[in-house]
Amino acid sequence: MKKKYLGIFILLAGLLVFSFIFSSLTGAAGIKFGNGLYYLFHPNCPGVEAEIIWRLRLPRAVLSLVVGAGLACCGAVFQGLLRNPLAESYTLGVSGGAALGVTAAAVLSISGIYLPVFAFLGSSLSVFLVYTIAGRKRFSNSALILGGVILSFLFSSLVFLIFSFARSEDIHGVTMWLMGDLSSAQPPLIKFVSVFIFSGIGLLLIFSRQLNILTLGEEKASHLGVNPAVVKKILFVAASFITGACVAASGIIGFVGLIIPHFMRRFISPDYRLLLPACCLAGASFLIICDTLARIIIPPLELPVGVVTGIFGGVFFLGFLSKSKRWEIF
Amino acid sequence: MKLSKAFIIFFLSLFCAPFVQAESYKRIVSLAPSITESLYQLKAQDNLIAVTSFCNYPPQAKTKEIIGTLLNPNIEKIYSLSPDLILAVEGTNRPQPIEKLKSLGLKVVVFEEGGSIEDIMKNFILLGELTGRKKEAESIAQEVREEIKFISGKIKDAPRKKVFWQVSANPLMAAGQNSFANEIIKYAGGENIVSPSAADYPHLSYEEVIKKNPDVIILVTMGNVTEKEKETWQRFGNLDAVRFSRIYVVDADKVCRPTPLSFLKGLKEIVRLLHPEVFGEGNQS
Asked: Which of B69, B76, B201 sits opposite A168 (nearest CB)?
């Protein structure tokens, strides 16, 4: 690896460590910085403050890390896979399916603690449908995009259909979830989702070389010995399930999958072998910082994290977009 | 003399100990406005340490520590206050934060949601038990029951009025048969025109309301209304409610809090509107 890249990776890793510690040491409880730092390195301290850090802030930071890494990575993969700069983790209907699953569960009076299961079932349904539709068209990009986008619209219409006759009390939980909610996941779910997402990311990393070739175009790719349909199938299913797991644990958090990969393409390189690990680190730091901001902007009220990623990320990205001289992605 | 007095007190306290509330919580966090209000009515506010930003009644409640909104309570904030009891209402509070609080080892009591006055009384008395004020709770409940009985007696022979209780104009939503408002209508000698449905506050169409021709239209406002909404109804000149100018605007804070005392207050207000011949001016109960 060239020296330049090594420097950037060290920088990104440093940012992640910094944001993780920052997140653990700030919050509504007003724990003093020094005390917090002490508790952070002494996990078995008794007392409320240590418990807050170890049982509330750290699990939440871990979940943000995992979900941020997953969403950013999948966003990058979808952009390469579809050769479309607008693609992100949710483009192919995963979030729509999850939203439908969660809304249906709420209306059927299924307890809120099972929402993750229904979110995952919903997103799996959408993955299955897009796969079937695109499969008939040999996984062409337009079939994937059109199928996914139209399915998203269909699902969101169904969600609004349910909203129009559901009890308002039932919808409360869903609306919070639709804006992203990192606060209520329980440790077992966090553990399970972490293992799931990181193994998925591992799979994506294995295919990063093929992904590089795929971005040249399908014809060239097949000349270079890559079977586009097979690679696309694998990447699509893997990235969709990673996104589904992210959505199940944390609701719909937009923008991470869109802006982080674009940033990283500029800062590092469009080479997926470098881009994917960079997206992991940067996406994780970004979501941790956004979630921390959501917690501390107007304490003790918490903002939905999706709102923060949208505003913070969107404004930052617009500035970046207007300043950069050359704007080509592929 | 003194010694014997001390002895008597000592024995009395021994004797009474089992009857004193075993669990009287001192550091309560309320996650719903109705609970906050009930705690004040029970004079248990000293045991209440924190409320949501939605708890605006009574006004003193605003001086308590705020732990976030109704839908999004700040778990870290709650935990940092080391409460010994957290009170929530099913259906009003989301289940996820409640599960999270329970998993941290905090004691959470979730009241069943119920629109009927008996459900409300039951919750109120349970709240009394939890705060060591069962007696006060029971006596308030008894008082309210008697007043309700008194009001029912007075309107026994009055004709029942068909009532449309609007909670929102856009979309048009009414108090349904399972709602708290329906209970007020019932005891105030009225009949809700909305047909039974699963929703507490169902959506409906203007056509439906006009077809049922209510005698009285009650517009409940969240403080942002609404001569305009009244005008919307006044266009339909054939409605009985319009012909006899029986469209009333009522403040939501007065009639939407499920506690026994608020129920009574709401009932008194509504019965006056439905049966002015019995409870009109100069005819006060």
From this structure: B201
Nearest to A183 among B69, B75, B82 (CB): B75
Q: For residue B103, list chain A residues with Cβ-Cβ distance below 8 A.
A: 186
Chain-centroid distance, C-alpha B84: 24
Across the interface, which of A27, A115, A176 has its CB nearest the CB of B71? A176
State how far the Cα of B34 lies from the Cα of B36, in Å rounded to an integer. Answer: 5
Q: Which positions in chain B touch A115 (Cβ < 8 Å)?
A: 96
Q: For A265-320, write each residue's pLDDT tens digit.
A: 888 888 999 999 999 999 999 999 999 999 888 877 888 898 999 898 888 888 87
Is the complex ipTM more than 0.95?
Answer: no
Residues on chain B touching A109 (C-beta within 8 angstroms): none
Q: Cα A84 vs. chain centroid, distance in angstroms? A: 18
Distance CA B273, CA B267 (A): 10
Separation of alpha carbons A89 and A157, rounded Å: 20
Q: Quick check: B51 and B35 in contact, CB under 8 A?
A: no
What digits encode the pLDDT tens for the residues A154-167? 999 999 898 887 77
Concatenated DSSP letters of A13-59: HHHHHHHHHHHHH-STT---HHHHHHHHH-TT--SHHHHIIIIIIHH
Strand partners of residue B203: B173
